[in-house]
Design a protein that fits this description.
Blueprint (H helix, E strand, L loop, with lengths): L10 H14 L4 E6 L15 E5 L5 E6 L3 E8 L2 E8 L3 E6 L5 E3 L5 H14 L8 H4 L18 H7 L14
Antiparallel strand pairs: 1-2, 1-6, 3-4, 4-5, 6-7
Length: 173
Amino acid sequence: MKPAPELTSSQPYLIRAWHEWCTDNGLTPYVTVWVDGSVQVPREYVKDDEIVLNISYDSTTSLQLGNDYLAFKARFAGVARDVMVPVDRVLAIFARENGQGMAFPKASPQAQGADQSALAEDDEPQDQDRSSAELVSSHLASVPATAPESVSATKSAMSKPKTGGRPTLTRIK
C-alpha cells in the first residue's frame, strides 16, 4: 500500500476564496499579518508585530494571491511600496464592512524557531529577547472544542463532536 501523499496547505485556497467572495459582494478584503523577518511590509505601520492590509483590487497593483506568498504594490502615505507576505504569516482575512472572514493559526513554533535563528544572525542582540514573546498566541484565538461546564447540559451536548469524526462549527456572537 502506498503512503498517502503529503497534502498542501488549504490556507492559500481559503484566502483566495474569501478575497473573491468579498470582491463579488462589493466588500473590501483585509488581511491581518504577523510580521517577522520573512514579511516585506512598511515597518512603520507595524504594531505589536502585526499589520492590517487592504488587499482590494482598488488599493493594490499587481496583486498575486499565490500558494506561497501574497505579493502586491500599494501606496502608504502616498508612496508606492512593494509588499510580500508568506501565506503562513496571514492570521486572518475579513471584510472591512461587516467583519466576516476567517482566522488562521499562527505559524508553528518550529518554523518560528527557525525564523528566529535566521533573524538572530542578522539582528541586534536586543531582538533575540523578543523570540519568546513572539511564540505567544496573537489576540486571535480558536474556538474551544467543548462548552464550559457552566453551560446547560443541552448546549454542551450539542457542542460535543459527533462520533463520525467530522468537525463542528461553533458560532460566537
